[in-house]
Amino acid sequence: MAGPRESPILETNDIKEERREEVSLDKNKPEDKERERERDNNMAPPAGSSIHRSSSRPQLDLSKAAIQGNSEERDPTILLPNQSDDISSHLALDIGGSLIKLVYFSRHEDHSTDDKRKKNVKERLGISNGNRRSYPILGGRLHFVKFETHKINECLDFIYSKRLHHGIDSHSWLTDAPTNENATIKATGGGAYKFADFFRQRLGVTLDKEDEMDCLVAGANFLLKAIRHEAFTHREGQKEFVQIDHNELFPYLLVNIGSGVSMIKVDGDGKFQRVSGTNVGGGTYWGLGRLLTKCKSFDELLELSQRGDNRTIDMLVGDIYGGMDYSKIGLSASTIASSFGKAISENKELGDYRPEDISLSLLRMISYNIGQISYLNALRFGLKRIFFGGFFIRGHAYTMDTISFAVKFWSKGEAQAMFLRHEGFLGALGAFMSHEKHGLDDVMVHQLVERFPMGAPYTGGKIHGPPLGDLNEKISWMEKFVLKGTEIIAPVPMAPPGTTGLGGFEVPSSKGGTLRSDASALNVGVLHLVPTLEVFPLLADPKMYEPNTIDLTDHGELEYWFTVLSEHLPDLVDKAVASEGGTEDAKRRGDAFARAFSAHLARLMEEPTAYGKLGLANLLELREECLREFQFVDAYRSIKQRENEASLAVLPDLLMELDSMSEEARLLTLIEGVLAANIFDWGSRACVDLYNKGTIIEIYRMSRDKMQRPWRVDDFDVFKERMLGSGDQKPRPHKRALLFVDNSGADVVLGMLPLARELLRRGTEVVLVANSLPALNDVTAMELPDIVAEAAKHCDVLRRAAEAGGLLVDAMVSGQDGSKESSSLVPLMVVENGCGSPCIDLRQVSSELAAAAKDADLIILEGMGRALHTNFNARFKCNALKLAMVKNQRLAEKLIKGNIYDCVCRYEPAR
Amino acid sequence: MDHGSPSQEHVSHLALDIGGSLTKLDYFSRNNECSNGDNNEEKSCSKESLLVSNGDKKCPVLQGRLHFAKFETSKINDCLEFIQRNQLHLGGCQHGGAPGNEKRIIKATGGGAYKNADLFKEKLGIFLDKEDEMDCLVAGANFLLKAVHEEAYTYIDGRKEFVQIDRDDLYPYLLVNIGSGVSMIKVDGDGKYERVSGTNVGGGTFWGLGRLLTKCESFDELLELSHRGNNRVIDMLVGDIYGGMDYTKFGLSSTTIASSFGKAISDNKEIEDYNAEDVARSLLRMISNNIGQISYLNALRFGLKRIFFGGFFIRGHAYTMDTISVGVNFWSKGEAKALFLRHEGFLGALGAFTSYEKHGFGDSIVRQLVQQSPLSASHAGYKIHGPLNGEWNDNESIECSVYVN
Question: What is the homologous superfamily of the domain B8-132+346-404 according to CATH?
Answer without folding.
Answer: ATPase, nucleotide binding domain (3.30.420.40)
